[in-house]
Amino acid sequence: MIVNVDGQLGHVDRHLLGEGRHHRLWEVLGGHLIDNEGAQFAVWAPNARSVRVVGDWNHWSEDPRHAVALEPVGDLGIWAGLDVRAREGQAYKYMIEERSGRTTLRADPMAAAAEVPPATASVLWRSSHQWRQSTAGSDWRAARAQRNSGRTSVYEVHLGSWRRHPDGRSHSYRELAESLPAWVVELGCTHVEFMPIATHPFAGSWGYQVTGYYAPDARLGTPDDLRLLIEAFHESGVGVLVDCTSPGTRGHWRSSTALRSMNTTILVGVNTQIGGRSCSTTVDWRCGTSWWPTPSTGSRSSASTDSASTQWPR
């Protein structure tokens, strides 16, 4: 049984998961804090022999006596369980035993937060951000549309390098909220488009090597800090787009701490042999490169955060 923030994983959830049509996976998978009861964990690892959770609360002990074992949920390939010792702000990873018997520690691809690189663990997180009334509902979007008269002009920006401190540090989400929205308005743009901000280990990839799809880049602040930046744009009448890298770039799977061969097999695409190496034709088709867009899907898509109640990031 999976228990998440909204209750049990019901029949509809299982049905949609089985068909691959569940559109709110962040509510079902990942680590979810439960009031006074620890945290519930769930991960998709269909070819694993066993899955356990280790973290700060058990001092990262991989001893089976101290690492809670997750249980398979039907035949969905999902492993789930509860660890009553887990607390908010603690880091964790999944200890996945492959069919060969080899064990690896993996970050949670559906976590709500992550450590600041070069650390690679996921972090248990609960938002405390309250959206202001001025950006709630649809009235502000209607007013913006009327003001723009159907015009669309997008300012694309890489948040980590848009502006830096004298010592070379990037501006944080909160610092960007003080200056970036005004700059976009001054340019006359109607929208801002963030280059990928999901968790990625290598800053030089500009976000195109994702290891945590629902955890914003911790180099620039917390998930709630990012919410504040988004809200600052909304209050300035600017819509926000977020580039989301799809399973079309090899970098997603390159890290041995993330999704690449997470449970001995490639989870997306078709296994092939290129130059004596195992590759996926949709994920890994250029094995000699750090990342590369696929010929079929491209390298990114965009997600709108116009709704003040947006679920990404949580």
Secondary-structure map:
Elements: E1 3-4, E2 7-8, H1 11-19, E3 30-34, E4 38-44, E5 50-55, E6 68-69, E7 71-73, E8 78-83, E9 91-97, E10 103-106, E11 113-114, E12 122-123, H2 139-148, E13 154-157, H3 173-177, H4 180-186, E14 191-194, E15 198-199, E16 212-216, H5 223-235, E17 239-244, H6 251-254, E18 271-274, E19 277-280, E20 301-304
Parallel strand pairs: 13-14, 14-17
Antiparallel strand pairs: 1-2, 3-4, 4-8, 5-6, 5-9, 7-8, 9-10, 9-12, 11-12, 15-16, 17-20, 18-19
Model description:
This protein is of the alpha+beta class and 314 residues long. It folds into three domains: 3-106, Immunoglobulins (Immunoglobulin-like, Sandwich); 133-245 and 299-304, Glycosidases (TIM Barrel, Alpha-Beta Barrel); 248-298, no CATH class. Helices cover 15% and strands 26% of the residues. The protein contains six helices and 20 strands. Strands 5, 6, 9, 10, 11 and 12 form a six-stranded antiparallel β-sheet that branches. The chain has a four-stranded antiparallel β-sheet with strand order 3-4-8-7, with no helix packed on it. The two termini are 23 Å apart. The model is unreliable at 1-7, 248-253 and 278-314 (pLDDT under 50).
Provide a short characterization of the protein structure.
With 314 residues, the protein is of the alpha+beta class. 15% of the residues lie in helices and 26% in strands. The two termini are 23 Å apart.
Which range does the strand content fall in?
25-35%
Can you tell me the CATH superfamily of the largest domain? Glycosidases
CATH topology of the largest domain: TIM Barrel
> What top-tier CATH class of the largest domain fits best?
Alpha Beta
Mean pLDDT, rounded to whole units? 79
Q: Helical proportion? A: 10-25%
- Secondary-structure-based class equals alpha+beta
Q: Give the strand tally.
A: 20
Continuous helix count: 6
Low-confidence stretches: 1-7, 248-253, 278-314
Shape: globular
CATH architecture of the largest domain: Alpha-Beta Barrel
Q: How is the biggest beta sheet arranged?
A: 6 strands, antiparallel
Tell me the series of helices and strands, N- to C-terminal: EEHEEEEEEEEEEHEHHEEEHEHEEE
**End-to-end Cα distance:** 23 Å
Radius of gyration: 20 Å
Please tell me the total number of domains. 3
